[in-house]
Structures are given as structure tokens and as C-alpha cells.
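User: Fold this; C-alpha cells only.

Assistant: Input:
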Amino acid sequence: MKKKLGCLHAHHSNIEYIELAFRSDEDIELVHFVDPGVLQHVSKGSDDVARKVKEQIEWIISCDVDAILITCTNYIALLENEVVFNPPIPIIKIDEPFFESICSVQLPQTILFTNPATVEGTIARLRQYAKQHGKSVNVVAEVIEDTFDLIMQGEKEAYNDAILRTLHTLSDEPNLISVAQLSMVHAAQRFEEQTAWTIIHPLRALVKDVKKNMAGTL
């Protein structure tokens, strides 16, 4: 019998990335939940967003899923570590295997973002993760300006092209490159096909991490 993985997204465009990542896995059924409203409230500086995220997760748990995958870094940053859900359930945060990949490389790295609102929380979590695991990171965050609205408006090709142009520009520099957001993965994969570069991105280690966290339920 398949086990259910509830996937919480801030935008519907993330669904296809997760579907592709797990397309060959016959043991896991994906159930998607999308609410872009949280990002809107984060940008407005709303004070009650963390409570909303907690309520969303409780709603997903009530749908009888066996584990939850959170694909938005803003959602992850808003979810306090000490929150305990009843019944207890594995909460898989997409950025943690991504952080592990970054921490495994000691060379200077540039981490690209398109959404400025995700930078502070992601970098803070990365440094916290590195500290907790006794590792150090040498990273610089860079935002591809005026790009995130493209994906929010459904202009996926223009969005990917903007990321691709930036990747080609940065390939002349010595730093390794990472893309921090799931929505940036397709452009990163296209860049890898066109060049000899390897781009660190959130999908690379995700499937393995999900299987590890769901080992007790599969």
C-alpha cells in the first residue's frame, strides 16, 4: 500500500518539480496543498503568518498523510522548531538536504535567489544548520532582481531565461553556484546541459532524504 506524502507549496509551479522527482517511486503517493497567500503576508510584514502555517500543517495532518514535505523556505523559516504536532508526524524541510550539499563543499559559493523575501530566512537557517553540524560555509547570497514576479504571473519561460542569463554571467567567476529555490531548478538543469558546470539545487538530495524520514512509515 502506498504511503501519502503531503506537500505544502507556496505556489502551484512547485508541484511539477516534486512530481518529476518522485515519478519512478511506486511506494509514495503525493498529495499537494498550495497557498500563495503566506508569501503575500510575509511581504507585508504581517505578524500572524507563523500561526497560519501551523494551522495549514495541522490541516494537512488531518488528511491522513504519513509525512509532510515543505517546499517553501519562507514556510520553513516561519515554522518554529519547537512546534509539536499531534499526532506526531515527520516534517521534511526541503532546504535541509540542500544545506547538507552546500556544507559538504568548502570552496566559496554564490547562492542565487529570485525572491528577496526568502534570502534572510534561508541564509540564517543555513548558518544555523552549519553550526549545529560542526561545519562552516563560505557563501554570498545574490538576488536576480525583478524576476520573481515572472513566475508568480505564470511567465515561466521568461523566468527561466532570466535565471539562465545570470548563471552564464556568473560562470566567468570562480565561485561555485547554488540556486536556493525550487522554482529555479529547471533553469539550473538547462544550464548544466549547456555547460560543464554542476549547480547545487534543492532537488538533488531530496528523494533520498524523504525516504530516510519516511523509513518508519514505508
